[in-house]
Amino acid sequence: MIEIHSKLPAQGVTIFSIMTAMAQRLNALNLAQGFPDFAAPPALLDALSQATLAGFNQYPSGDGLLPLREQVARLFSRRDQLTPDPVTEITITPGATIGIFCVIQAIIHADDEVIIFDPSYDSYAPSIQLVGGKAIHIALNTADFSVDWNQVKDAITDKTRMVIVNTPHNPTGAIWSRQDWLNLIALIQDKNIIVLSDEVYEHLIYDHEKHLSALTFPELRDRSFVVGSFGKTFHVTGWKTGYCVASPQLMRVFRQIYQFANFCGVTPIQMALANYMQQHPEHITGLSRFYQDKRDLFISGLKDSKFNLVASKGTFFQNLDYSAIRPDLNDREMCQYLAEEHKIVAIPVSVFYQHPPEKLHLIRFCFAKKDETLIQAAKILTLV
């Protein structure tokens, strides 16, 4: 009999698969998983067709097609007034998650500690565990999902090797302020600690707030990896294309790992994105307004509901507090109740924690949906 010992024995089916399957089984409105239900820009789809017909169908450079890396550099130049070198500092990856995984593989060794802030994206902790590291979970303040910097100070030890930041933050929609970054710098500037900054929602930020990338701070420039996502930005999550930016020294160790994890991204998709970004810069400049309008439409539809909320500052997720409706249910039970009784599906926020706070009555909805979908969802929720 063959014995197999799982490296992730406690890992089951993800909540996203569970809730999507429930939505399909119940024919319920699915605002759980984070993907648009509307089409990608027609010009982007045309660019993909043109790229395939033009012969961009074989392996690209393992680091990514240079025209797309140059477009990423221009994004940082326009927004942050810094220009990473497309050749030595930018790598195109098949999705942001594998970029995050490869950063952790490249930097973390057995017994190293990595600080992550809960609620957190569910790939962080398993990626740390797989290399023998230890995830140190620090819960954000539940009132506003801000960081308790005293807790961070107390958590840093001689074994701390990395801090993972996610801004704008999934699942809460919170964003890091300049002061947050300065607080982090003060704690790690004299220590051998790397920053992994997950910035996949960098262009989805609202109410005149500004996204601050880790790379905009000189003190972090040589110790930070920034990971981004074209899928979130261009409404093509299924294209699974992202990028990683870091100093030449950090990028070298990243590429040492990445070349064996996937070797390269998809050629025609990279060419399509590069051409579209060059020809349609207005897409990104208009993205905040596009999604803020959807957030506001969803929120305005809930004004007569019994849900409480704080408007999301970023991402395409909105959390709703149901404590005035069914405080007797935990958030998993509430999501099941909404699916079965009201035919609408959400994600329980507790799944993003190692140790969820008691009486956490928050559920997450995705508002990257057609206006009619959001109007229908708000009508359903108003009757709950």
- What is the overall silhouette? globular
- Give the distance, in angstroms, between the N- and C-terminal Cα atoms: 52 Å
CATH-assigned fold name of the largest domain: Aspartate Aminotransferase, domain 2
Strand order of the largest sheet: 2-8-7-6-5-3-4
| Structural Rg | 21 Å
- Kindly state the percentage of residues in helix: 25-40%
Reported for the largest beta sheet, the result is:
7 strands, mixed
If classified by CATH, what would the architecture of the largest domain be?
A: 3-Layer(aba) Sandwich
Question: Would you list the SSEs in sequence order as H and E?
Answer: HEHHEHEHEHEHEEHEHHHHEHEEEH
Total count of helical runs of at least 4 residues: 14
CATH level-four homologous superfamily name of the largest domain: Type I PLP-dependent aspartate aminotransferase-like (Major domain)
